[in-house]
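Session log. Operator J.P. requested a structure for one protein chain; no other inputs attached. Running the standard single-chain path with token output.
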Amino acid sequence: MPTAIALCKFVGTISLGLLTGVSYTLSTQSLPSLLTLPSAKPAAYTLAQTARLASLHIRTLSTISTSALLLSFYLSPSRVRHPYLIWTSLAAVLAGGLDLGFSGRGVQPKGRVVKDEVGDVNGEEVERGAREQQFIELVRMTLSGVGFTMGVVGIWGEGA
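Structure written below.
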């Protein structure tokens, strides 16, 4: 049983680290590079696709991290139940559900976007959407980074 608990803690912490990396890459690499595209139509299409795919991966990593950390808390004997597992899983839930809090901001993925379905778009609207999405990813990166740090320090502190 201790091996299963340690494995759950490891999987949850690593998933939270991957979530931090995804948000970091989106906010510092992918979204700023969209603004260098020559016209608004390909930028709008690429932004919508990026938001859709990122949302899928972010929610998956957040769910895996939260589930594994809460399972390890539940499986742990009461004398070694550490509250950092609850706080770390809370950081994962907040980072994964951040899109719900910013429902009016950024780009909201609405299923598959076909390149020809992107109608007339304004370049300023695309830039605003990319900047807002970049802000959301910076906040997500901060939340998940704090959770990842708590998880690493917690695992290191208990010697697992």
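Operator note: The helical segments are 2-34, 40-75, 84-96, 98-101, 123-158.
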